[in-house]
Amino acid sequence: MSVRFGVLGPLRVHGGQAPGPAKHRTLLAALLLSARVQVPVERLMSVVWDDRPPASAESVLRVYVSALRKLVEGIRTVPGGYLIDVDPEDVDCHRFETLVAGARQARAAGRVAEAADGYRAALGLWRGQALADVESSVLRRAHAVPLEELRLTALEERVQLDLWLGRGAEVVGELRALVGAHPLRERAWVRLIEALHQAGRRSEALGAYQDARRTLVEELGLEPGAELTAAHQRVLTGAEDGPPPPGVHELSPGGGQYREALDGGEPVDELPPDISDFAGRQDALDWITRTAAVGAAHEGAVDVRALAAPVHLVLHGPPGCGKSALAVHAAARLRLPGGRLYAALGARPPGAVLEDLLRSLGCPDGAVPPGLDERVRLYRSMTARKRLLVVLDDAADEAQVRPLLPTGPGSLTLVTSRSSLAGLEAARAYELGVLGRDEAVAMLGGVAGHERVRAEPEAAARIVELCGHLPLALRIAGSRLARKPGWTLAHLAGRLGDERRRLDELSAGDLAVRGSLALGYRGLPDPERRLLRGLGALSAPDFAPWVLGADLEPLAEAGLLQSRGLDEAGQERYGWHDLTRLYAAERLAEEDGGAAAVLAARAGTILERTRQARTSLLPAEPGTGRTEVHPPAQAPEAAGPGRSQDPWGPAGTGTARGASLRTGWLRQESRWLSAERRFLVATVADFYHAGLYEAAWRLAFYLTPLFELGAHHDDWHTATATGLDAARAAGHRHGEALLLRGLADLHLAEGRTDAAAAALRAAQPLVEGLELARLTLRLGLVQARQARGTSQRAEAERAFVRALGVFEEAGDRRGRADALRALGALRGDEGPLNESLAAYQELGDPRGEAEALLDLARLHLAAGRHPQARDCAERRLRVNRRLGDRLPEAAAQLVLAEIARAEGAPGAAVDAARAAVETFTAYGDRRNAAQALLSLARAAADRQDFDGEVDALMRAMGEFDGLGDEHGKAEADQLAQDARRRRGQRI
Q: What local confidence, expressed as pLDDT, does residue 129 receive?
């Protein structure tokens, strides 16, 4: 049957004219490769413009389609895209796949000559490289590469049939060309050696093996695999090459040869060669030997003696983490009297694997039963009296593995899988992660050369980081360096640094990170594939299922995600390897058009969930008037004289149960925000890069209270900078002002009052009304911090009064409470502070209440009213502890330390100050840690603890010096001089 269209070589249209312009050829090729299947417009734009379509791409694409219709019939417009209505058998690539499938069916049925002819017809359709004149890397990656791989596999399978038919001498030339073009393909070398051996050219066959071994060692750092080694051994011993075709033997299962295979023979050893540069994994190796009840070492290997029952061990982990290499390395150290079997599973059905295992155990071909159940029974019979080590590599699921488990007491099975195979009875599992830093560097050195790695330690560390400590990626990187002695490690690190090219760079011969990940991806059902692609829109290192509203466990079972356990909010978190993230993003761009649509679909959920949690930290949304916060399913109640002043009960209830519910909800929301912090910060950038500017600036704004409460200053800087860019890109003046206000709070927390004032003044022209009042209030707080005289304090007071007037006129109770607290603290006036405290309690805002209590404690302390100061500080401390707010708790501890000093209790002061120092230090809040150290030094001085005083002062000076705070450093230095003077007087 002839074909009308050709893509297996230059694009061809039989009986017609192929398009001339390059983009027209690409468009036609994309339609032909999906004959009679709709191709979405987004996919065609990605293909035609190589993932970089211009803004006018859709309209230009319509022009291209119109031009193609003048040359080729059958191009139809369908909803969302186009298709070409031609019989797939009229396109050479589809015809090729059909012929290969038919040839394989004939081979399976024992029709060897027919199968060989079928392969030959399929291969005859090729006229060169697939898509030879089509300029689209997207199309070549998605179609040409798999087609080329199928072509090579079909060629090897056809040659195998020719060898079975005794045609070895006829295929030698063809095979020499094949290994010349693909020198890293071991199976091609196997066939060449077999062909030379069959042709009687023994010395050439041995020479071919040496050529193959030298190529593999020099290019990949790997010794030949089991199949190549076996072919070499057959040449050395003069044995016949390979198994005969199906149907050659017709032996009954009850025959003598069957019984001989069952009972006797030399122990089999089919283990692939161990990797010479294997590095690390000592913990996993120890687990295998310990779990398998291993005895003493014998001649450099471990001798398994006393296993009472079969032991099944599962090594599982993400693609490329070195599961197979570890299993082979561990198996090479083990000795069992029955021998060692190895089977690569992949997508193979258990029946086909059993056929190979039965032959390895000595069962003649004709004695292998046709049905799965009969094969399982025979395998169990043959293994029942043997103590075997069986390595089952790359298992898909439990159903594939169960029929392959040996039954003999003392047998050991090592299974590798991306899944933990949790349903496999009586199996124990070990999760294999990536290598540690030192192990990863050692592995890179083992492949690329230890001297080169030692010569560029920083570049080596960078390569290790960019490879994500993944063994497969490191082996590829090392192999590339080994093949390129002129490259520096820094050069390779630079090439790997571009995320868009990293997966392309991590390829050497038939080793590729992308290919390893693709195996897992192609094995997923369509819903899980879509889910993985959706996750490719995210740059966060980990996430919880709520993000996409889907169960992520199937992806973890497939080894593409890893469970990170429960986070502090009680959610299951999942993470992934950075290279998996790049692959998911690549598939998303290839199949769905990119991240923007996914992020746009989830933006509303992410924003609303974060806004809801934000209200637990700061119960007000600027400009909305919603100043009360109510836990979910709790209806708001009107404020009135009967409202309870219990800050822990729902407004108006005054019940202990209400107090517990409200506190629990506030703490849970705070924990949720803390658990999601890294994800949400990354998502701000994701929204921005996807052009979702409104979502980006709003999310950055919603996170500000979390950053302030936890002193997450780096995240605060990052999210605010991106949020500001987004608000400006969106032209949203109010959003820009909100982000500038947050930036001012950050500067103030870091002690940069001038920068804080500048940010607030930049925001003022952008807004009016209530938001302008909030900026005025913030500016007054900055001025109060800067105040060195009465005029500056008066200016701050005027700002507070102006803001208070606006809030009272607008009925903004939260704003009024904030302004009253600022006024009371500045004036040292208990009245406004008590008013603000009552307002926060009425609003149901325990964190606002806590701040008012601390200001009252400081006011009472300054006035010498120590009992009242202690009462307020301890009430503040109880609020912080019930909410789980550690940094505000430390601020309360500092005030309690000063109260204890004033009361003449230096021991209690030291304890409180030390607790504050420890908390601030644990959270990385260096500025407050330095202030707490000064407090600790003063308390130690009161106890006449000179060493403790000086130690605290030296630490404080170090912190102030690192912060560039000359005022704080001078204060610490003065205290140190006072301490030395007192010490001298005592002496």
A: 87
Q: How far apart are CA 590 and CA 514, in angstroms?
A: 14
Instruction: Enumerate the β-bridge partners of residue 77.
Output: 82
DSSP state of 371: S
Identify which of 819, 809, 841 has the alpha carbon closest to the alpha carbon of residue 775: 819
Q: Token match 């606006």: residue?
A: 806
| End-to-end Cα distance, the chain | 110
What's the number of CA atoms in the CB half-sphere (13 Å) around residue 745?
22
Cα–Cα distance measured from residue 679 to residue 547, given in angstroms and rounded to the nearest whole number: 10
How far is Cα of residue 909 from the mean position of the Cα atoms in its chain?
46
pLDDT in tens, 658-670: 455 556 666 777 7
Distance of alpha carbon 195 from alpha carbon 191, whole angstroms: 6
- Asked if residue 284 lies in contact with residue 432, where contact means CB atoms within 8 angstroms, the answer is yes
Q: In the predicted model, what is the mean pLDDT of the chain?
A: 81
Quickly count: other Cβ atoms within 10 Å of residue 555's Cβ. 24
Fold observed for domain 265-431: Rossmann fold (3.40.50)
Q: Is 60 exceeded by the pLDDT of residue 620?
A: no
Domains of the chain: which residue ranges? 265-431, 437-509, 516-593
Nearest to 823 by CA among 796, 862, 856, 786: 796
Q: Categorize the per-residue pLDDT at 633 as very low, low, confident or very high, splitting at 50, 70 and 90.
A: very low
How large a percentage of the chain has pLDDT more than 90? 18
pTM over 0.85: no
Range of weakest confidence among 365-374, 536-545, 648-657, 854-863 = 648-657
Mark residue 712 as left, alpha or beta (left: phi above 0; alpha: psi -120 to 50; beta: remaining): beta
Give pLDDT, residue 650.
Answer: 34
Cβ atoms of 426 and 312 within 8 Å: the answer is yes
Give the start-end residues of each E strand in 385-492.
Answer: 389-395, 412-417, 427-431
What's the average model confidence in pLDDT over 672-688? 91
Overall average pLDDT of the 531-547 stretch:
89
* Sequence-separated (6 or more) residues with CB below 8 Å from residue 731: none
CB of 734 within 8 A of CB of 771?
yes
Contacts of 630 (CB under 8 A, 6+ apart): 636, 650, 651, 844
Q: What are the residues whose beta carbons fall under 8 Å from the beta carbon of 141, sequence distance 6 or more?
A: none
- Give the architecture (CATH level 2) of 516-593: Orthogonal Bundle (1.10)
